[in-house]
Amino acid sequence: MATILTSRDVHVYYGNHEALKGISLDFEEKGITALIGPSGSSKSTYLRTLNRMNDMIPGVTVTGNIAFQGNDIYAPQTDLVALRKQIGMVFQQPNPFPFSVYDNVAFGLRIAGQKNREALDAVVENALRQAAVWDEVKDHLHDSALALSGGQQQRVCIARVLAVSPKIILLDEPTSALDPISSSQIESTLLQLRKDYTIITVTHNLQQASRIADRTAFFMNGEVVEVDDTKKIFMNPAKKETEDYISGRFG
Amino acid sequence: MNPKLSNKIANGALYGIAGFIVLILAALLGYIIITGLPMLNWHFLTTPARAFTAGGGIGIQLFNSFYLLLLTLLISFPIALGAGIYLNEYAPNNWVTNVVRTAIEILSSLPSVVVGLFGFLIFVVQFDFGFSILSGAFALTFFNLPLLTRSIEESLAAISNTQREGGLALGLSKWETVTRIILPAALPSILTGVILSAGRIFGEAAALIFTAGQSAPALDFTDWNPFNISSPLNPMRPAETLAVHIWKINSEGIMPDAKAVSSGASAVLVISVLVFNILARFIGKRLYQKLTSAK
Ligand SMILES: Nc1ncnc2c1ncn2[C@@H]1O[C@H](COP(=O)(O)OP(=O)(O)O)[C@@H](O)[C@H]1O
Ligand SMILES: [Mg+2]
Predict the structure, then answer these.
(1) Quick one: fold of B42-292?
(2) B221 three-state secondary structure
(3) Which keywords fit this entry according to its UniProt record (chain B) (predicted)?
(4) What CATH number is given to the structural domain containing A79?
């Protein structure tokens, strides 16, 4: 399988504080990679370097190389708008815009200039189906997305990202603000999407990682301790720290 | 003293104070509205004032008040919106921004008489606008700008950062995120702020006495060419407003029914301001509900 995203020796500094200490990770096309590790181990920091969401924090320095389909995303000529359409992001707290479900999902396309109603209708329906929330919202498309439950909101946010046809979807603890039922719905959504998208998800929940991820990377103190097939990480980790963490001895 | 008892006493005292304030307010409003009510009829609201004889109305003053309000908002809203957006979305957290914030704070606490005198020196004399609606609108802009800017800034600050991240993550530029997501989301609260400030502008007298002037020349309500001197739309004519009219009648009114006219005009003023306040709550709430479907 082809490699879609590579990162080489990535360091991130918040002011003088070195949060990421040289991360090198590659991601193959399609499938789910889980980033696990204790709080403060810089999982979010790493995830946010992949679509340059860290750029907006004052005082941040990023060094090293991150390439999407072979192109350095930190190169000066990078089109951030185009990049973020290719690499979408879903956050911990569901953040639908205070508009209707339809307008939320159509948002990215409308900004890009798509005005054709039929084309928008088709994309919105398709994205909501892919996010496995269509049946629940199809009769409320023109009601505010804020009236939905947290789990539905999160899936609408996933649909909003899918609507602009990304290649990669980054998720930062997408279920940690949700109840168990909603969480497992998000998990099954991700399992359906893994056939078509490259998914990188941060999770606190080790069971979740073991249920859905093809590969798992274990972060600690701003470094990747170990990255491997999920089965290998959970059944037979190479490093002692990994074993301690997954057996619940810390973190 | 045991905590339960002291809690009870504190509660009682707070209720007492709150009740007292409500009572004063109700008595004041009640008195103004009841004494003014007999005057309120179509004739009073539409005919021009009379200086020496009884039976004058407040038609022109009422129109002037609304026209001045409109002009003031037309000037101050875009500026306040720009300033509010800049301060909340773009301004770096440094000493320049702090100076600007402090300046706004100081400006907002200037007495309106001072704003009026400043407006007189600058707009009436220096720019030679004379006593005119335009001078008045500029003075009121100074009066209104700091509070409106603050209120818009606060409306924007109340929108969660997750919304901004959502926009940027979808590939929107910062400006697109602000105009397409943050502003619409803050609209109900911004609108509430604007309407509340409209109430303040509408009732303002001191800033207008030396700027919009104290005379209300006759208007020809069939002439809507803003360049004609008798046109209601002419921004260069002197324009006594309702609030200034009340002040003037009470200080130097010589018409026989001065007291009644003053009561009637006060009632109209107070009712208008009340309507602005109720409208602000109502529209803000409705808009918010529409946006969020929150019940
Ligand atoms: N915006 C920021 N400014 C300064 N320090 C930050 C910022 N975000 C994260 N950090 C620091 O970087 C480290 C990693 O944080 P984070 O990436 O959020 O970890 P995780 O997602 O694994 O819990 C922490 O020490 C945190 O305090
Ligand atoms: Mg995190």
Answers:
(1) MetI-like fold (1.10.3720)
(2) coil
(3) Cell membrane, Membrane, Transmembrane, Transmembrane helix, Transport
(4) 3.40.50.300
